[in-house]
Design brief:
It comes from Holothuria leucospilota. One of its GO terms (molecular function) is RNA binding. This is Squamous cell carcinoma antigen recognized by T-cells 3. Pfam families: LSM_int_assoc (PF16605), Lsm_interact (PF05391), RRM_1 (PF00076). The protein has 211 residues and is of the alpha+beta class. It is 24% helix and 19% strand. The chain has a domain of 82 residues: 2-Layer Sandwich (Alpha-Beta Plaits), CATH 3.30.70.330. It has six helices and eight strands, in the order E-E-E-H-E-E-H-E-E-E-H-H-H-H. The radius of gyration is 46 Å and the shape is elongated. The termini are far apart.
């Protein structure tokens, strides 16, 4: 009588077990946790969809083994269902014929049942941590905020540089000086005395005769 519907709500029945100090045995999951090609997973169902409606829809493609509507513990449907056929051929036909069918304004999705594996128990995860399993190192890409800096972020605005500003700035001539130098024409250098032509002995003799 476990999970039998009573006035629209599932009735859950479990075996009474005397609680002991020792760790209770884990309860095995009732359904398979692997791919079942003869079982279909139906999603995007309206909550008003009933088990009889699904039997009528999928029963035209072959012999049904079981139809199960997934509900919360309160009995409210989740909009999911499992339809199990007697063989894989009928299940394949049902996928082609029912996938995308509109039921109550919802286009249902039909696929082969392949549930994901259940999460690793907490006890096993703690044991793995105690054994000292090393995590792979994270290689951060170069930050976009600073050139050549690796890490989750570059240099922030609040981080001050210890280098004096006088060394950071390049010496650039002031605009006034540049304008002044640009406005002045280059002065012609007067020829120095050393640049004058040298006098010969005849020139010296003429200069003494004149005097």
């Amino acid at each position: 009588m476990d999970r039998e519907a009573v006035e629209g709500r599932p009735m859950y029945i479990d075996r009474y077990v005397v609680k002991e100090k020792q760790k209770p045995a884990t309860k095995d999951f009732k359904y398979e946790m692997k791919m079942e090609k003869n079982k279909l997973f139906v999603s995007n169902l309206p909550r008003s969809a009933t088990k009889e409606e699904l039997k009528k829809l999928f029963g035209q493609y072959g012999q049904l083994k079981e139809v199960r509507v997934v509900t919360y513990r309160s009995g409210v449907p989740k909009g999911l269902a499992y339809v199990e056929f007697e063989n894989e051929v009928d299940a394949s036909k049902a996928i082609i014929g029912t996938d995308g069918t509109n039921i109550g304004g919802h286009n249902i999705c039909v696929a082969i049942s392949n549930p994901p594996s259940r999460k690793q128990p907490i006890s096993e995860r703690k044991e793995n941590e105690k054994e000292g399993e090393s995590k792979p190192a994270i290689n951060y890409p170069k930050s976009l905020g600073a050139k050549g800096v690796s890490g989750p972020r570059g240099k922030g605005r609040t981080q001050l540089s210890m280098m004096p500003r006088s060394l950071q700035r390049n010496t650039v001539p002031q605009p006034k000086e540049m304008g002044a130098t640009a406005g002045k024409e280059p002065q012609q250098q007067s020829p120095s005395e050393g640049d004058k032509p040298k006098m010969s002995n005849a020139d010296f003799a003429k200069m003494f005769l004149k005097s």
